[in-house]
């Protein structure tokens, strides 16, 4: 598992680009407004995800703040938990990579049209990497962003061509 992780990190480091290496206004804005931002995150946008290192939990919180996501749905739902409203962001739990695609399929209809999906630990094990690739290849995904510790999927119709970005963070 550690060998896989190290190989994935080497590949990530080789492919990762900064803000000037991207040719997407959306991604450039994401880098400037989320990854480079150092402002205090308003409390209502804090995403608590203890399975993630703090720096990636911070990225998710900054993403929710920048796009004003108020309803983050952690999947799978805990026993007895029910869905009460549409979600702005789906967050797939890291310990269930073999269920990611099934959970994504099941809860995608509950996602707002301008929402996103966050996937932590996308390179931790071969199962995580395979599940991440399957999610990226889903026909509903218009853009994916790989930050190594977490991946983001976007579904906006304004993205005419499917794109995959590997960003330095």
Short note summarizing the structure:
This protein has 169 residues and is of the alpha/beta class. It is built from five helices and six strands, in the order αααββαβαβββ.
Would you give an account of this structure?
With 169 residues, the chain is α/β, with parallel strands linked by helices. The chain has one domain. The protein is 34% helix and 20% strand. The chain is built from 5 helices and 6 strands. Strands 1-2-3-5-4-6 form a 6-stranded mixed beta sheet, sandwiched between helices. β2, α4 and β3 form a beta-alpha-beta unit. α2 packs across α3.
Features:
single chain; 169 residues; alpha/beta; 6-stranded mixed beta sheet
How does the SSE layout of this entry go?
Elements: H1 2-15, H2 25-35, H3 54-66, E1 72-75, E2 87-92, H4 100-107, E3 111-120, H5 126-137, E4 143-146, E5 150-154, E6 163-166
Parallel strand pairs: 1-2, 2-3, 4-6
Antiparallel strand pairs: 3-5, 4-5
Helix pairs in contact: 2-3
Please give the order of strands in the largest beta sheet: 1-2-3-5-4-6
Number of strands: 6
- Report low-confidence residues grouped into runs of 5 or more: none
The shape is globular
Q: In percent, how much strand structure appears in the residues? A: 15-25%
Secondary structure: helix percent: 25-40%
Question: Radius of gyration, rounded?
Answer: 15 Å
- Helical element count? 5
Measure the end-to-end span: 23 Å
On the 0-100 scale, what is the average pLDDT? 93
Biggest sheet overview? 6 strands, mixed
The computed structural class is alpha/beta
Q: What is the total number of structural domains?
A: 1
Order of helices and strands: HHHEEHEHEEE
């Amino acid at each position: 598992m550690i060998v896989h992780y190290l190989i994935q990190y080497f590949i990530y480091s080789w492919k990762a680009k900064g803000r000037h290496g991207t040719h997407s206004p959306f991604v450039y804005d994401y880098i400037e407004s989320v990854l480079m931002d150092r402002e205090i995150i308003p409390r209502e946008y804090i995403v608590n995800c203890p399975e993630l290192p703090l720096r990636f939990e911070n990225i998710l919180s900054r993403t929710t703040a920048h796009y004003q996501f108020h309803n983050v749905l952690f999947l799978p739902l805990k026993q007895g938990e029910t869905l009460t409203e549409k979600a702005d962001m789906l967050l797939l739990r890291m310990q269930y990579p073999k269920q990611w695609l099934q959970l994504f399929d099941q809860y995608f209809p509950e996602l707002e049209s301008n929402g996103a999906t966050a996937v932590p630990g996308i390179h931790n094990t071969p199962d995580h990497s395979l599940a991440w690739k399957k999610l990226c290849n889903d026909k509903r995904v218009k853009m994916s962003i790989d930050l190594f510790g977490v991946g983001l999927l976007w579904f906006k119709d304004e993205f005419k061509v499917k794109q995959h970005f590997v960003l330095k963070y």
